[in-house]
Amino acid sequence: MSAPAASPRAPWRATVLTLFPEMFPGPLGFSLSGQALASGIWSLATYNIRDFGIGRHKTVDDHPAGGGPGMVMRCDVTAAAIDAARKADADLPLIYMSPRGIPLTQSIVRELAAGPGVMLLAGRFEGVDQRVLDARQAREVSIGDYVLSGGELAAMVLIDACVRLLPGVVGAEESLAEESFEEGLLEYPHYTRPREWEGRSIPEVLLSGDHKRIAEWRRSERLRITRERRPDLFAKLQDKS
Ligand code: SAM
């Protein structure tokens, strides 16, 4: 295991089981998530699945039963990594990053950010032997309908989305309240100086100083953009009302 970045472990903990621990913290070490990591708001531990590999070559994979292309991560090796991580931190929900998983949404992110943290299994090759997922009760989560070459980037996406919801990470808590996916809506457009740029102006209402009108305009923009770009989200909104 790599040394946790904050010791003792922070209130929100991310543990990643991976064949490429050197990829972490990677982008998570920058900006808001990086500052929060350095200040102990969250902590990161990685386990190298290779350390639990079999024999002299530390083998972690084998041919798929039933034939077919690629290799599959062995259940015994993967289980040994999970068990070691759980011995150190028993409370974290185990999530296997997988294109077959339930799609990651802001409501899942909120749920995970409100808990003790996450233990993320990053797959490689064709994926992981099903038996270890069943035996260790891994929840499968996907970051979208496309296939990555490994689960590490997916794990980073999930961690980043959770970390920015932790208290003290994003400066103004209000800036989270109207973000995309809050209340089932996408966000309104933003503008800043200069006031005129390439013949384009900032909408007059935003310069009016009238907070009620600004709030109404932003709300109507959120509705318009959601209806145009994400009819699926908009339909859910109408079902609720
Ligand atoms: N054979 C698998 C399939 O068709 O579903 C794809 C395996 S992929 C090449 C290798 C690993 O990348 C997976 O085990 C998973 O951990 C990760 N991965 C790929 N796409 C992902 C996605 N959309 N969301 C989360 N993890 C993903």
Strand content: 15-25%
**What is the average per-residue confidence, as pLDDT, rounded to a whole number?**
94
Ligands in the model, by name, code or SMILES, are:
S-adenosylmethionine
Strand order of the largest sheet: 2-1-6-5-7
Outline the secondary-structure elements.
Blueprint: E1 12-18, H1 31-38, E2 42-48, E3 61-62, E4 72-73, H2 75-88, E5 94-103, H3 106-114, E6 117-122, H4 130-135, E7 139-142, H5 152-163, H6 174-177, E8 196-197, E9 200-201, H7 211-229, H8 231-240
Parallel strand pairs: 1-2, 1-6, 5-6, 5-7
Antiparallel strand pairs: 3-4, 8-9
Helix pairs in contact: 3-5, 7-8
Structure description:
The chain has 241 residues and is of the alpha/beta class. It has two domains: 12-163, Alpha/beta knot (3-Layer(aba) Sandwich); 178-240, Trp Operon Repressor, Chain A (Orthogonal Bundle). α1 (31-38) links the parallel β1 (12-18) and β2. The chain contains eight helices and nine strands. α3 packs across α5 (152-163). The radius of gyration is 22 Å and the shape is elongated. The strands form three sheets. A five-stranded parallel β-sheet has the order 2-1-6-5-7, sandwiched between helices. It has a two-stranded antiparallel sheet with strand order 3-4. The chain has a two-stranded antiparallel sheet with strand order 8-9. The chain binds S-adenosylmethionine. S-adenosylmethionine is lined by residues 97-100, 122-124, 126-127, 142-144, 146-151, 154. S-adenosylmethionine binds at residues 97-100, 122-124, 126-127, 142-144, 146-151, 154.
